[in-house]
Structures are given as C-alpha cells and as structure tokens.
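Got a spare moment? Tell me how you read both lines of this record:
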Amino acid sequence: MWRPTILRRVVLSSIKENITLSKFLYSTKSRTPRSTAKLTLISASVGILVGAGYGGYTHYKINTKKLSSSSDEEFAFLKDAPEYKSHYKVINEADSSNLQLVLFQYQTCPFCCKVRAYLDARGISYEIVEVDAVLRQAIKWSGYKKVPILLAKVDGGYQQLLDSTAILSILETHIRDKSYSLRDIVKFYPVSKFENDSGKPTTDVTNKYFIMHNSAVPDEKQRVAEIEEREWRQWADRVLVHTLSPNVYRTASESLETFKWFEEAGGWRNNFPSWECAVMVYVGAAAMWIIAKRLKARHNIQDDVRQSLYNAVNDWMTVINKKGTPFLGGKKPNLADISVYGILSSIEGCKAFQDLKDNTDVGKWFDNMKNNMKETRGRMITV
C-alpha cells in the first residue's frame, strides 16, 4: 500500500514549493552580432514561406489553447499499438526495468534530450522514432501534438506518457517500486488546467516533481536532499531551458548554423524528403531567429544573452563546487543532474555551447555526466 505519510506530502509543487527565481534573471547589455549578407539573401528568398510558416505557427499556438480538450492531454491508454517506424534502438542486456518503451522525439529538443538522458542513466532499453517537424506524421495517432511522447507497453495495451519532467518522475517511481504498474502510477500525476499569474489558461501535470515511492519516511538529510533535487529540477525547467533559444538563434547566421547541426544530429536527410529538410533548415532558421526575440523578452533575458546563459550555469556549478562532489546527487547523478545535462546536451553542437565551456567551468561536470552515461547506456542498433 502507498504510505499515508507519502501521500500527505504529495502536493502541487506550484503551490507549496515555489522557488524564488528572481536571482536567476540577469541584466547585462551588449550588442548581438549582425547577420551576414548571405543569410539576409537566404532569409529574403524564403520570405514568403517564413511568413506563412510563422503565421501558421502563431495560429496553431493560439488555437490549440482554445480548442484542445483535456482528453488530448491526459495520459491516454491505447488498446492497440499505433503504426510507427523505428529509426534506431538502444538495447541494454542488463536492463531490469521490465519496460518496453518507444520515444517519439526531435533529436535536439531539450525536453527529448532530458528523457533520453534519463533512460541512458538508468540503463533502460528503448526505441526511437524521429518526428518530422513539418508534417509530424509519426505522431498523427496521438491527440497530444508535442514531443516528447513516450509509449510504454503495459498489460492490455499501451500507455502514453507526456511532459518530460513527469516522464522522469513516473519512470523513477516505477523503478523504485515495481509492485505498481505504470497505469496505476500515472493516476498520481493528473493533468490540470488553471489560470497562471497573468490570467492565461495553462495546462500542467500535478506533482510532476515528486517521486511516489513506497519507502520509509526519510530522515532529515534525505528529506533535504529530495527538496534540493526538486528545486533544481524546477530551475532547469523554469530558468535554464529558457536561456537556450535566444542564444542558439541569436543572429540569422547563428540560427542557420544551429539548424544545420540539427539536420546532421537528427539524421534528417536519411529520414525525411529533401524538400522537407530544406524547409526545416532554412525556413526554420529564419522563423526561429524571429521567434527567439519574442522568447528573449518573454523570459526577461537581457541584451547580452550569452551572459544570461553563463550566469545561469554558474549558479548551477556554484552549488556543485560547494558540495565538493562530482554531481549534485553526490557520487552519482540525481534527477536534477540528469535534467540539466539533458537540456545542455541539446545544444552541444552549437557555437553557444562552445562559448559556454570557454566562459564557465561547466566542462568538467558535463564530461563527468557524459562518461557516466557511457557506462550505463545500452548499445545503439540501427533499424
């Protein structure tokens, strides 16, 4: 049975565990580099497509808020497996999780990278389906139209899991207490709709930063460690991830370089038609260069976007250095380490990441995380 003491402390993190984030917002000013003439010509040549694409993006964002029903965003249960084509599998012979998982993703999406980092850190086997960002045919079976989507084989069918943070907590709960099925566990993470501080309708997963394990009541040291882990997982979602887009799409030229790396890392040319790759790279780069300016203003990131990224990561490294351990979790990474690593690994091939390593001491921690993943991750098999 679930311990009543555990259930009493399972609350909405947004209500009882607010983190003061103002100290993570930075105000430094500098000019961003100008875009090159070549990129200006490229952007102009796809101007019509950019306008249509951006208009469609805005229309989609507005109307999904108006029209989406809770059934689309719940953890849906499917009796039959949807049709899909795996792009590769990660097989770990030592996997004892008893999980059969398929991850529908964008290779360089920070939230997808977070889920992959968790699966690799826990030595779990899984399949990968790379979703095309234009048509998204690979997830047409789902009412939920964002990634990541994790599909788990369960008794009687397939359980859909969504929201990268909730996915980590649900799987971690299952690993710690396998007496409960995934279908039982997801009931402790209901999807809720509410109005945020700005009065806008918002959807979120309740309790997503909590692990529902059937263990003894923790002592004070363990309780403090669990709170710290939750706080930094929240920080990763609320602060760190929002510094990425303004940095990797800082200028038109840097945005194009970023999308060319996305194309390479995601194997787009091997998986999608050439016309679709061109649209994703050139139209995507131009559109995200524009959208990044909105995101910069929305998340209070000042003119010197690089410094905002450096300051955020420096706050993370200050805590780890103070502990004197390789990871926030001590000798082994905890869920906060995994979350931060997953988010930062999504920009590993970008200029912003190299600048980050050159201007902070995150490199050693990041390399430690990567080496840890190599020890626990299964072998990749191309399908």
